[in-house]
């Protein structure tokens, strides 16, 4: 949801000539007097929500340390308001895709801002060429990176980290465990791997006022998100409308469409095709208010996206729609859920448009039939109504 905001050394246990830190060395790191921590996570909303589990454990281990998050510009307020970090430093992803001058200017601005903080520890979750440049320029005493990087380094590149985390994590297949892998590198035991965010009281008041103005009561609606960061992850709007209609007819639950301002066109297509009551709050809620709105919903229905992870984090049951990405790797966590994905390998419905092996550039999700999504949603509604304590 964009509007809110060389050689592979894995088998050798080495990273470009640097030995992976031993268990004893990692335990020594954990005992170091760390007063300030920077986590580099400049990806999307969903990634930030998964990262909140890492920062929660860091806060418990180093209660006196200041935790900062380098995040995509536009997410700073959400990060601080939700307690994911004590401070947020914006990173201009768009500027980094601009001219050479814009890229250099953004790197200089971010590096200057960070160096003034004098961080004791940096953790590079972004794991990119740019993030490694930043790690080197910041040059904190303790620098955690992945060994090896997710994408192998070119022969001329070096790994600036001096403490290494396992690239794919230890706890499970889900991508969350990649973001938690630095805990093991620090000798920190994983206590609770489930993302959990609490709606802010003032935002909850605002969310309830928004719902009241549209005659929608708490628990009487499903929150629907028809957008995503990439077009290829969006299920067809008319199919959303069909499922919304069947849910209303069978369960009495109305639909409230949510999303950022740039998702108004796709939301309008859902509204145009709807045959049942639908309320649109697209573009009317900040991310903090969205978290509160989602906590008021009976259930969430939407594409693989940041709002799906946000719904799960505020303990709202989820029906998630997936394409090339596996739900085992990016599915909702910690709540009753249903995830749907078409059979693979995909029988391509967008030949000449799809970008093979690019999760945001393929349209596999559009092969999901209305009947399958409606059945899964209604089954979950029935389970939740028969066993409310499951929520």
TrEMBL record:
| Keywords per UniProt | Glycosyltransferase, Transferase
* GO-annotated biological processes: lipopolysaccharide core region biosynthetic process
**Family matches, as Gene3D superfamilies:** Glycogen Phosphorylase B (3.40.50.2000)
Alphabetized GO MF terms: ADP-heptose-lipopolysaccharide heptosyltransferase activity
Q: Per its UniProt record, what Pfam families does this chain match?
A: Glyco_transf_9
Per the record, GO CC terms?
cytosol
Looking up PANTHER family in the UniProt record yields: LIPOPOLYSACCHARIDE 1,2-N-ACETYLGLUCOSAMINETRANSFERASE-RELATED, TETRAACYLDISACCHARIDE 4'-KINASE-RELATED
The protein's name is Glycosyl transferase family 9
């Amino acid at each position: 949801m964009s509007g809110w905001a060389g050689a592979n050394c894995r088998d050798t246990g080495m990273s470009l000539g640097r030995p992976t830190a031993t268990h004893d060395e990692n335990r020594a790191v954990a005992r170091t007097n760390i007063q300030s921590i920077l986590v580099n996570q400049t990806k999307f909303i969903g990634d930030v929500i998964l990262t909140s589990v890492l920062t929660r454990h860091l806060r418990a281990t180093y209660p006196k340390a200041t935790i900062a998050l380098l995040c995509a510009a536009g997410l700073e307020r959400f990060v601080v308001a939700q307690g994911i970090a004590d401070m947020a430093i914006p990173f201009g992803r768009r500027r980094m895709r601009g001219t050479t001058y814009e890229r250099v200017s953004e790197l200089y601005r971010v590096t200057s801002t960070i160096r003034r903080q004098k961080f004791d520890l940096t953790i590079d979750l972004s794991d990119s060429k740019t993030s490694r440049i930043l790690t080197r320029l910041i040059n904190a005493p303790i620098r955690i990176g992945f060994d090896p990087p997710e994408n192998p380094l070119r022969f001329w590149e070096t790994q600036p980290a001096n403490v290494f985390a396992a690239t794919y994590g230890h706890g499970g297949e889900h991508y969350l465990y990649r973001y938690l892998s630095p805990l093991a590198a620090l000798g920190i035991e994983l206590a609770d791997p489930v993302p959990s965010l609490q709606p802010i009281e003032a935002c909850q008041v605002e969310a309830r006022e928004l719902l009241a103005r549209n005659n929608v009561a708490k628990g009487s609606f499903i929150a629907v998100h028809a957008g995503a960061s990439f077009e290829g992850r969006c299920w067809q709007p008319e199919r959303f409308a069909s499922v919304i209609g069947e849910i209303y007819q069978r369960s009495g639950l109305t639909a409230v469409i949510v999303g950022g301002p740039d998702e108004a066109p796709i939301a309008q297509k859902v509204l145009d095709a709807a045959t049942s009551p639908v309320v649109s709050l697209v573009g009317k809620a900040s991310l903090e208010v969205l978290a509160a709105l989602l906590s008021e919903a009976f259930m969430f229905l939407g594409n693989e996206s940041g709002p799906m992870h946000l719904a799960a984090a505020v303990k709202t049951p989820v029906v998630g729609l997936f394409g090339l990405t596996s739900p085992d790797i990016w599915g909702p966590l910690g709540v009753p859920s249903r995830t749907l994905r078409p059979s693979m390998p995909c029988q391509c419905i967008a030949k000449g448009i799809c970008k093979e092996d690019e999760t945001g550039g393929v349209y596999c999700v559009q092969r999901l039939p209305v009947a399958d999504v409606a059945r899964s949603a209604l089954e979950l509604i029935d389970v939740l109504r028969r066993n409310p304590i499951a929520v």
